[in-house]
Design goal:
The chain has about 200 residues and is mainly beta. The protein folds into two domains: about 100 residues, Immunoglobulin-like, CATH 2.60.40.10; about 60 residues, no CATH class. It has two helices and 15 strands. It is elongated, with a radius of gyration of 28 Å. InterPro entries: Ig-like_dom, Ig-like_dom_sf, Ig-like_fold.
Length: about 200
């Protein structure tokens, strides 16, 4: 009798351990915290979680409110991808285009929640960068700065400096001339990049 009971317990334990090892939930990219995108392009964001067997993926606002489809603005695909479509400035809604979201994955193993992901739309707007005029004594160093308008500073970065269409290598020196009385900003240019 004891032998039969032990065999039954052993077989139940094996079945249970096989179920647990084949059923799991996991994060694909738990480090994703912020997504900034251009309103003229839109964004598609896969849920950073998954599971075996396939998990049901859902998106929520950080407040816990369910995400609902807004035609031509926001859609959650069957595969768990959150899509925010391109939109005009008149269609901007901070509740949709500048908010914290998270997604969940759920299957027989349980349910996991991603960290909050800040999703923020930015508008393409014309802007001009410039190089400030600098003065320096002969033999000294002049430091130039690329001035970017405050409205776009968060989304624009300097990618290169040029003098007469020749790139200035980072950390390199650029000799402007032997008889410098005044260095004019027109001798150099800074190039920058914005979101696509």
């Amino acid at each position: 009798m004891w032998l039969v009971t032990l065999l039954l317990l052993y077989s139940l334990q094996e079945v249970h351990s096989e179920d647990v090892s084949s059923t799991r939930l996991y994060f694909v990219n738990a480090s994703l915290q912020k997504v900034t995108y251009s309103s003229s392009v839109g964004v598609s964001l896969p849920c950073p979680a998954g599971g075996t067997p396939s998990a049901i993926l859902r998106w929520y606002l950080a407040t816990g409110d369910d995400i609902y489809d807004v035609p031509h603005i926001r859609h959650v695909h069957a595969n768990g991808t959150l899509q925010l479509y391109p939109f005009s400035p008149s269609a901007y809604n901070s509740y949709i285009h500048d908010n914290d979201y998270f997604c969940t994955a759920e299957n027989q193993a349980g349910k996991i929640r991603s960290p909050n992901i800040r999703i923020k739309a930015v508008f393409r707007e014309p802007y001009t960068v410039r190089v400030a005029d600098q003065r320096s004594m002969r033999g000294n160093v002049a430091v130039f700065k690329c001035l970017i308008p405050a409205a776009v500073q968060e989304y624009v970065s300097v990618v290169s400096w040029e003098r007469d269409t020749v790139s200035i290598v980072p950390g390199g020196l650029s000799l402007i001339g032997r008889r410098i009385t005044r260095v004019n900003y027109r001798l150099g240019r800074c190039y920058n990049t914005l979101l696509p």
